[in-house]
Amino acid sequence: MRRPYRAAEAAAAVLLLLLGTACGSRLPESDFEHDRRTPAPATGEPLRVGIITSVTSPVGGNAFTGPRDGAQAYFDRLNARGGIDGRRVEVRRCDDGGSGVGNNECVHRLIDEDRVVALVATTALDYAGASRVSRARVPDIGGQPIGAAYDTYPHLYGIYGSQAPRDGTPGWDGKLYGGTEVYRYFKREHGARTAAVVSYNQAASAAYARLVEQGLKAEGYEVVTEQVDFALPNFRAVAADLKQQGADLVFDAIDSHGNARLCKAMDDVGAEVTAKVTNVQNWTSTVPEDYRDAPRCRNALWATGSSRNHQDTGNEAVREFRDATESLPTHSQWQLEGWAAAKWFTDAARSCSRTGITRACVDDFVHRSDGYTADGLLLPVTFRPLPEPPQIRRNCLSVARWQDGRGWVSQGDMNSTCFDVPLLSYEP
Questions:
Q1: DSSP 332
Q2: 30 is a domain residue
Q3: Does residue 60 form part of some domain?
């Protein structure tokens, strides 16, 4: 079953807001790029798709590029094999600069000027143009739900699905819902009973920490809350208290740099935990560099999400992704999800070959997606709306842990790691 909104996405949004606050404001720098790669042997008129990414955002150049790179790799391989019924996919990329102004500019240029048939793997810090995409009835396929746009507007299809009405209001009457399956997993599978939540004394960070605390308490955990100063965080004091409190798990609402410093402090004071839990955005191959000063904490890192581990090369679909992205310097879960988004568009376009590959036909295919998995890369996705949010759902999750020398090691199969959990509401 698919959850209507994942708490991990809320975490990603919070961390991005934090980093944006730390770096200050920045003028938008939209960069519209044509794909200049050598055309593959295809004879028909090209199909244009657009990819909007906040590359030059206040967050930094590598924070958002994973989905774009995964989608581009998929389309490159597709074109090398003849495209879609002999039609090459022509990728038009636009950097919105991480601003609402830049995002609206990208939407206008891709939809109105270049007439792309669809947007794919959108990853935008401020998706200000979302309503415009929806009004134009352009399908946006497999975007990362940073913010509530994919639970608000029709014709927008987030990579994890949504069962909200999507009638112009976020979620159900302005509220989104997330399950407690992550907390249930560590309680049932690893006997965790005490969990710590670390946040900054900053509004967005504190708000997300309260959401995590709410979910943990619903699952019966004893919760230890730790807050550090945003400007001058004393992570050593936090680590010492974690050790004294005997925390089994550590969750956080802090940025990646802060996480690395927290892990080092935990190693320095000898605070050992069952799991230091992170989200899909940090499920990357850069762990050895990011946590180089914290070997014990590094090997306690766990990640959870809704897609198959990008290192699970025993799976044929993952193996194809890794083969196609072999030249990339790093690998990440967001790259794999961008690849899945591109495949989703391709499956939709192929279904339209006889009647014509139009925006409306592609949109209809994706809208009717019920149980779509991108060849097993995703947990089953649906956009079947529910008039009311369910109180309890059976939610599944993908779990991996980091081990030096092996990387991210899958923990069970995501299609069978499932729990009947309550859904808790929160405002985006």
A1: B
A2: yes
A3: yes
